[in-house]
Design a protein that fits this description.
four-stranded antiparallel sheet; five-stranded antiparallel sheet; 349 residues; alpha+beta
């Protein structure tokens, strides 16, 4: 239905507009504003009600999406993955959080736009330019226009829209509040402990076989993991990031640090493979100097002197794992690391 289909007596009254015409002194006539086209909502209250219900529905969907965001954050495991065509496999938690928060924000914006385009006044008003400093008359006019705009928005009369909008705007910030949960000390003591404990065998990362002292030659570098940790385990990446070892065999006479010598076995020393700068895996070994080098930022550690830092940005030495040999002749751990592995964190001590 258009405004041409409505009897003339049903149309809202319009102000008379004077249209200037061209003359000799002013050859360019002022075109003025085009005639105002009335919307169906201006004429038919049933259409206005439909628009009101549409806006309220969008605000309600926004509230439900915010509740779903919070529920997804609390219930979906962080390591759960799903397949989404055509993207592929991705984190179920990230997908749920992004989808629900996006719907919540979109519905608020769409509801506000639909409200403005269908129910608020769309009459164009021409206003003359005025000095930057407003006169008392202009200030009075602004206040009057504001009151008129508030009245025309029907915020007081359209209670359904008002209440659902307030509900949506109130719930959306809860998404950010819930995310603040991650700022707390949730890791507890997880950063201080690894899978290593007394009796755990040192398993070669390449062969997946337990190591004997004879398997480690002088000057060689071997990477090891705890017995029982397999690559197909769901938490393999998290655990190996803390428990990865590098095994080096030195001549006992070359070891300068007393504790390092006591914690070794026949010159075989076991140190964390995780750099204490930003957590990169150390993989470069200089046989002659007994130095290991992190490839990320060139932090260098002396394995013959307690793995202390001799160059680079790393803040402290690599943690050493105390090792021995069991009754069957295999290398085993005699406990966990004495200090947290990897980069420093604020409560380390």
């Amino acid at each position: 239905m258009s405004s041409q289909d409505i009897p003339e007596e049903n149309l809202p009254a319009e102000q008379d507009r004077a249209v200037a015409v061209a003359d000799e002194k002013d050859p360019f006539a002022d075109p003025g504003l085009p005639p105002h086209e009335h919307r169906i909502q201006d004429i038919d209250e049933r259409a206005a009600k439909r628009s009101e219900r549409t806006v309220a529905l969008l605000f309600t969907v926004s509230m439900l999406a915010t509740v779903a965001f919070i529920a997804a954050y609390v219930t979906i495991p962080v390591d759960k993955s799903i397949f989404v065509f055509p993207i592929g496999h991705l984190s179920a938690l990230n997908f749920a959080l992004g989808l629900t928060l996006g719907i919540a924000l979109f519905c608020i914006g769409a509801g506000a736009v639909h409200w403005a385009r269908t129910l608020m006044s769309d009459v164009e008003i021409a206003d003359e330019r005025h000095p930057i400093e407003a006169s008392p008359e202009v200030r009075a006019k602004v206040h009057a226009d504001f009151k008129q705009g508030a009245k025309e928005s029907a915020l007081g009369r359209r209670k359904l829209i008002r209440n659902t909008m307030f509900g949506a705007l109130t719930l959306v910030p809860l998404s950010g509040v819930v995310l603040l949960r991650d700022l707390g000390p949730l890791p507890e003591t997880k950063l201080r402990h690894t899978l290593w404990k007394k009796g755990k065998l040192l398993v070669n990362m390449n062969t997946n076989e337990p190591l004997r002292p004879s398997d480690v030659a002088v000057g060689s570098l071997t990477f090891a993991k705890p017995e029982g940790l397999e690559e197909h385990d769901h938490d393999f990446q998290n655990e190996i990031a803390k428990a990865a070892l590098m095994i080096v065999r030195l001549q006992p006479g070359d070891i300068k640090d007393k504790r390092e010598l006591e914690w070794s076995h026949e010159g075989i020393v076991a140190y964390s493979k995780i750099c204490t700068h930003v957590g990169c895996p150390i993989s470069l070994y200089e046989q002659q100097t007994h130095h290991v080098l992190c490839p990320c930022h060139q932090s260098t550690f002396d394995l013959s002197d307690g793995a202390r830092v001799i160059f680079g940005p790393a803040g402290h030495a690599l943690p050493q794992l105390r090792i021995g040999v069991n009754d069957e002749g295999y290398l085993e751990a005699l406990g966990d690391f004495e200090e947290p592995v990897g980069p420093a964190f604020w409560e380390r001590g």
